[in-house]
Amino acid sequence: QVQLVESGGGLVQAGASLRLSCAGSGRSFSTLPMGWFRQAPGKEREFVAGINYSGASTSYADSVKGRFTMTRDNPQKMVYLQMNSLKPEDTAVYYCAASKTRWGTWSNVPDDFGSWGQGTQVTVSS
Question: Who contacts 50 (Cβ-Cβ below 8 Å, separation ≥6)?
Answer without folding.
Answer: 33, 34, 35, 36, 58, 59, 60, 70, 106, 107, 108
